[in-house]
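Input chain follows. Return C-alpha coordinates only.
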Amino acid sequence: MAYSPPRPGSKIIIVGGGCFGLSTAYALSLKQQYDIYVFDRQPIPCPDAASTDINKIVRLDYADNTLYMHLAIESLPLWHQWNKERAEKNQCPVFHQSGVLLFGQEDFSDFEKKSIKAIQEAGYGHFIDVYSSPEEIVRAFPQFQQAVDNGFKKAYLNKQGGMYLAAHFRHCVTHLLGWCNSAEAVKHVYQKCLDNGVHFVVGEKRGHFAKLYCDPKNPTTVLGIQTVDEKIHHGDLVLLTTGSWTAGLVDMHHQVIASGQQVVHFTPPPQLKETWEKMPVWCGDLSNTGYYGFPVNAD
Protein backbone atom coordinates (compact mmCIF):
# COMPACT_ATOMS: atom_id res chain seq x y z
CA MET A 1 0.00 0.00 0.00
CA ALA A 2 1.37 3.40 -0.97
CA TYR A 3 2.05 5.83 1.85
CA SER A 4 -0.16 8.89 2.10
CA PRO A 5 0.84 11.68 4.49
CA PRO A 6 -1.77 12.71 7.07
CA ARG A 7 -4.17 15.42 6.01
CA PRO A 8 -3.71 18.94 7.41
CA GLY A 9 -5.52 19.21 10.73
CA SER A 10 -5.10 15.52 11.54
CA LYS A 11 -4.76 14.42 15.14
CA ILE A 12 -1.63 12.28 15.44
CA ILE A 13 -1.03 10.03 18.45
CA ILE A 14 2.55 8.96 19.15
CA VAL A 15 3.09 6.26 21.76
CA GLY A 16 6.57 6.48 23.28
CA GLY A 17 8.60 9.53 24.24
CA GLY A 18 12.11 8.26 23.53
CA CYS A 19 14.34 9.32 20.64
CA PHE A 20 12.06 7.82 17.97
CA GLY A 21 8.88 9.34 19.36
CA LEU A 22 10.32 12.76 20.08
CA SER A 23 12.13 13.08 16.75
CA THR A 24 8.93 12.06 14.96
CA ALA A 25 6.85 14.54 16.95
CA TYR A 26 9.37 17.32 16.33
CA ALA A 27 9.59 16.64 12.58
CA LEU A 28 5.80 16.62 12.26
CA SER A 29 5.49 19.78 14.38
CA LEU A 30 7.66 21.66 11.89
CA LYS A 31 4.80 21.29 9.39
CA GLN A 32 2.61 23.39 11.71
CA GLN A 33 -0.52 21.63 10.47
CA TYR A 34 -1.10 18.71 12.84
CA ASP A 35 -2.46 18.22 16.36
CA ILE A 36 0.21 16.02 17.92
CA TYR A 37 -0.03 14.05 21.18
CA VAL A 38 2.80 12.01 22.70
CA PHE A 39 1.91 9.39 25.33
CA ASP A 40 4.35 7.85 27.80
CA ARG A 41 3.95 6.24 31.20
CA GLN A 42 7.02 8.06 32.53
CA PRO A 43 8.26 11.67 32.57
CA ILE A 44 10.62 12.64 29.77
CA PRO A 45 13.44 11.72 29.53
CA CYS A 46 11.96 8.31 30.29
CA PRO A 47 14.18 6.21 32.61
CA ASP A 48 13.26 3.01 30.72
CA ALA A 49 14.07 4.37 27.25
CA ALA A 50 17.29 3.22 25.59
CA SER A 51 17.89 6.82 24.51
CA THR A 52 18.14 7.96 28.15
CA ASP A 53 21.88 7.43 28.36
CA ILE A 54 24.98 9.53 28.97
CA ASN A 55 26.56 8.65 25.63
CA LYS A 56 25.81 7.27 22.18
CA ILE A 57 28.20 7.01 19.23
CA VAL A 58 27.69 9.40 16.32
CA ARG A 59 29.29 7.73 13.28
CA LEU A 60 29.15 7.27 9.52
CA ASP A 61 30.19 3.63 9.45
CA TYR A 62 27.27 1.30 8.83
CA ALA A 63 28.70 -1.12 6.24
CA ASP A 64 26.33 -1.22 3.24
CA ASN A 65 23.40 0.32 5.14
CA THR A 66 23.89 3.64 3.38
CA LEU A 67 20.59 5.06 4.64
CA TYR A 68 22.06 5.26 8.15
CA MET A 69 25.28 6.76 6.78
CA HIS A 70 23.43 9.52 4.95
CA LEU A 71 21.25 10.22 7.99
CA ALA A 72 24.42 10.64 10.06
CA ILE A 73 25.88 13.03 7.49
CA GLU A 74 22.68 15.07 7.39
CA SER A 75 22.59 15.22 11.19
CA LEU A 76 26.01 16.82 11.66
CA PRO A 77 24.96 20.45 11.06
CA LEU A 78 22.06 19.93 13.47
CA TRP A 79 24.32 18.61 16.22
CA HIS A 80 26.45 21.73 15.91
CA GLN A 81 23.35 23.93 15.81
CA TRP A 82 22.05 22.34 18.99
CA ASN A 83 25.41 22.90 20.70
CA LYS A 84 25.22 26.55 19.70
CA GLU A 85 21.67 26.87 21.02
CA ARG A 86 22.67 25.31 24.33
CA ALA A 87 25.78 27.47 24.68
CA GLU A 88 23.57 30.55 24.42
CA LYS A 89 21.62 29.21 27.44
CA ASN A 90 24.78 28.17 29.36
CA GLN A 91 23.82 24.52 28.97
CA CYS A 92 26.25 21.65 28.41
CA PRO A 93 26.86 20.56 24.80
CA VAL A 94 25.02 17.50 23.51
CA PHE A 95 27.61 16.61 20.85
CA HIS A 96 31.30 15.91 21.47
CA GLN A 97 33.42 15.72 18.34
CA SER A 98 36.07 13.30 19.57
CA GLY A 99 36.33 11.04 16.55
CA VAL A 100 35.59 7.30 16.52
CA LEU A 101 38.26 4.59 16.32
CA LEU A 102 37.24 1.11 15.18
CA PHE A 103 39.55 -1.84 15.73
CA GLY A 104 39.47 -5.18 13.98
CA GLN A 105 41.80 -8.15 14.21
CA GLU A 106 44.54 -8.80 11.65
CA ASP A 107 42.50 -7.41 8.77
CA PHE A 108 39.36 -5.39 8.21
CA SER A 109 36.17 -7.38 8.49
CA ASP A 110 33.45 -7.05 5.85
CA PHE A 111 31.83 -4.43 8.07
CA GLU A 112 34.79 -2.03 7.86
CA LYS A 113 35.46 -2.78 4.19
CA LYS A 114 31.87 -2.05 3.25
CA SER A 115 31.86 1.07 5.44
CA ILE A 116 34.95 2.46 3.71
CA LYS A 117 33.52 1.63 0.29
CA ALA A 118 30.20 3.30 1.08
CA ILE A 119 31.90 6.45 2.39
CA GLN A 120 34.08 6.64 -0.70
CA GLU A 121 31.19 6.07 -3.10
CA ALA A 122 29.20 8.78 -1.34
CA GLY A 123 31.95 11.26 -2.20
CA TYR A 124 33.63 11.37 1.20
CA GLY A 125 36.69 9.28 0.43
CA HIS A 126 38.91 12.28 1.22
CA PHE A 127 37.82 11.89 4.84
CA ILE A 128 39.80 8.67 5.13
CA ASP A 129 43.50 8.03 5.82
CA VAL A 130 44.66 4.42 6.07
CA TYR A 131 47.19 3.36 8.72
CA SER A 132 48.88 0.31 7.26
CA SER A 133 51.15 -0.61 10.17
CA PRO A 134 50.98 -0.89 13.96
CA GLU A 135 53.62 1.80 14.23
CA GLU A 136 51.45 4.31 12.37
CA ILE A 137 48.53 3.61 14.67
CA VAL A 138 50.59 4.06 17.83
CA ARG A 139 52.13 7.29 16.54
CA ALA A 140 48.65 8.70 16.01
CA PHE A 141 47.11 7.16 19.14
CA PRO A 142 49.66 6.12 21.76
CA GLN A 143 46.79 5.33 24.15
CA PHE A 144 46.14 2.20 22.10
CA GLN A 145 49.60 0.64 22.37
CA GLN A 146 48.21 -2.35 24.28
CA ALA A 147 45.47 -2.84 21.72
CA VAL A 148 48.07 -3.00 18.95
CA ASP A 149 50.19 -5.38 21.04
CA ASN A 150 47.16 -7.65 21.24
CA GLY A 151 46.66 -7.97 17.51
CA PHE A 152 45.05 -4.78 16.21
CA LYS A 153 47.55 -3.67 13.61
CA LYS A 154 45.92 -1.73 10.79
CA ALA A 155 43.56 1.24 10.74
CA TYR A 156 41.93 3.96 8.71
CA LEU A 157 41.21 7.51 9.77
CA ASN A 158 38.11 9.34 8.63
CA LYS A 159 39.35 12.91 9.06
CA GLN A 160 35.98 14.56 8.58
CA GLY A 161 33.54 11.96 9.78
CA GLY A 162 34.47 10.96 13.32
CA MET A 163 35.48 7.32 13.31
CA TYR A 164 38.61 5.11 13.21
CA LEU A 165 39.01 1.53 12.04
CA ALA A 166 42.00 -0.74 12.60
CA ALA A 167 42.81 -3.59 10.28
CA HIS A 168 45.64 -5.67 11.66
CA PHE A 169 43.90 -4.17 14.57
CA ARG A 170 42.48 -1.64 12.21
CA HIS A 171 40.57 1.47 13.09
CA CYS A 172 38.75 4.27 11.39
CA VAL A 173 38.25 7.82 12.57
CA THR A 174 35.94 10.60 11.54
CA HIS A 175 36.79 13.88 13.22
CA LEU A 176 33.39 15.35 12.47
CA LEU A 177 31.87 12.54 14.48
CA GLY A 178 32.17 11.39 18.06
CA TRP A 179 29.54 10.92 20.72
CA CYS A 180 26.42 12.59 22.04
CA ASN A 181 25.04 13.02 25.54
CA SER A 182 21.90 11.15 24.67
CA ALA A 183 19.74 12.07 27.66
CA GLU A 184 20.55 15.77 27.23
CA ALA A 185 19.75 15.51 23.51
CA VAL A 186 16.37 13.99 24.43
CA LYS A 187 15.70 16.89 26.80
CA HIS A 188 16.67 19.35 24.07
CA VAL A 189 14.31 17.98 21.44
CA TYR A 190 11.58 17.59 24.08
CA GLN A 191 11.76 21.32 24.72
CA LYS A 192 11.64 21.98 20.98
CA CYS A 193 8.47 19.90 20.78
CA LEU A 194 6.90 21.88 23.61
CA ASP A 195 7.86 25.14 21.92
CA ASN A 196 6.12 23.91 18.75
CA GLY A 197 2.88 23.06 20.53
CA VAL A 198 3.19 19.28 20.85
CA HIS A 199 0.99 17.89 23.65
CA PHE A 200 2.41 15.39 26.15
CA VAL A 201 0.29 12.97 28.19
CA VAL A 202 2.46 11.21 30.79
CA GLY A 203 1.75 9.08 33.85
CA GLU A 204 1.40 5.47 34.95
CA LYS A 205 -2.32 5.56 34.15
CA ARG A 206 -3.20 8.48 31.88
CA GLY A 207 -0.11 8.17 29.68
CA HIS A 208 0.33 4.40 29.84
CA PHE A 209 -0.64 2.62 26.60
CA ALA A 210 -2.91 -0.38 27.17
CA LYS A 211 -3.99 -1.37 23.68
CA LEU A 212 -4.96 -0.13 20.26
CA TYR A 213 -8.54 0.97 19.88
CA CYS A 214 -10.02 -0.47 16.70
CA ASP A 215 -13.25 0.02 14.82
CA PRO A 216 -15.73 -2.53 16.30
CA LYS A 217 -17.11 -3.13 12.81
CA ASN A 218 -13.69 -3.41 11.18
CA PRO A 219 -11.06 -4.70 13.65
CA THR A 220 -8.19 -4.02 11.22
CA THR A 221 -8.89 -0.27 11.29
CA VAL A 222 -7.14 1.54 14.14
CA LEU A 223 -9.10 4.52 15.49
CA GLY A 224 -6.86 5.44 18.43
CA ILE A 225 -5.51 4.01 21.65
CA GLN A 226 -6.78 3.05 25.09
CA THR A 227 -4.70 3.93 28.14
CA VAL A 228 -4.48 2.08 31.46
CA ASP A 229 -7.07 4.42 32.98
CA GLU A 230 -9.48 2.91 30.39
CA LYS A 231 -9.83 6.21 28.55
CA ILE A 232 -10.06 6.04 24.76
CA HIS A 233 -8.07 8.58 22.73
CA HIS A 234 -9.13 8.93 19.11
CA GLY A 235 -6.61 9.80 16.45
CA ASP A 236 -6.40 10.01 12.67
CA LEU A 237 -2.96 8.38 12.79
CA VAL A 238 -1.39 6.25 15.54
CA LEU A 239 2.36 5.67 15.67
CA LEU A 240 4.00 3.20 18.05
CA THR A 241 7.56 4.47 18.59
CA THR A 242 8.22 2.10 21.45
CA GLY A 243 11.61 0.60 20.60
CA SER A 244 12.42 -2.67 22.32
CA TRP A 245 9.09 -2.55 24.17
CA THR A 246 7.13 -2.95 20.92
CA ALA A 247 6.86 -6.74 20.93
CA GLY A 248 5.27 -6.57 24.37
CA LEU A 249 2.57 -4.19 23.14
CA VAL A 250 1.49 -5.70 19.83
CA ASP A 251 2.00 -9.10 18.22
CA MET A 252 5.06 -8.68 16.00
CA HIS A 253 5.08 -12.37 14.98
CA HIS A 254 8.68 -12.72 16.24
CA GLN A 255 9.94 -10.03 13.86
CA VAL A 256 11.22 -7.93 16.78
CA ILE A 257 13.15 -9.40 19.72
CA ALA A 258 14.39 -7.26 22.61
CA SER A 259 18.02 -7.76 23.58
CA GLY A 260 20.31 -6.40 26.27
CA GLN A 261 23.93 -5.35 26.55
CA GLN A 262 26.28 -5.22 29.51
CA VAL A 263 27.61 -1.74 30.28
CA VAL A 264 30.42 -0.90 32.69
CA HIS A 265 31.08 2.58 34.14
CA PHE A 266 34.25 3.17 36.13
CA THR A 267 36.44 6.02 37.37
CA PRO A 268 39.90 5.89 35.75
CA PRO A 269 43.02 6.27 37.90
CA PRO A 270 44.21 9.90 38.14
CA GLN A 271 47.38 9.26 36.13
CA LEU A 272 45.33 8.08 33.12
CA LYS A 273 42.46 10.56 33.25
CA GLU A 274 44.08 13.22 31.04
CA THR A 275 45.23 10.63 28.48
CA TRP A 276 41.80 9.01 28.29
CA GLU A 277 40.05 12.37 28.03
CA LYS A 278 41.85 13.01 24.73
CA MET A 279 41.15 9.66 23.11
CA PRO A 280 38.46 9.03 20.49
CA VAL A 281 35.46 6.79 20.89
CA TRP A 282 36.75 3.29 20.11
CA CYS A 283 35.23 0.04 18.89
CA GLY A 284 36.96 -3.33 19.20
CA ASP A 285 36.07 -5.45 16.15
CA LEU A 286 32.56 -4.03 16.42
CA SER A 287 30.69 -6.27 14.00
CA ASN A 288 31.93 -9.41 15.76
CA THR A 289 32.09 -8.38 19.42
CA GLY A 290 29.84 -5.32 19.86
CA TYR A 291 32.60 -4.06 22.18
CA TYR A 292 33.19 -0.30 22.38
CA GLY A 293 34.08 2.52 24.77
CA PHE A 294 34.18 6.27 25.24
CA PRO A 295 36.58 8.96 26.40
CA VAL A 296 36.46 10.11 30.01
CA ASN A 297 33.44 12.36 30.57
CA ALA A 298 32.47 14.81 33.29
CA ASP A 299 30.96 12.06 35.45
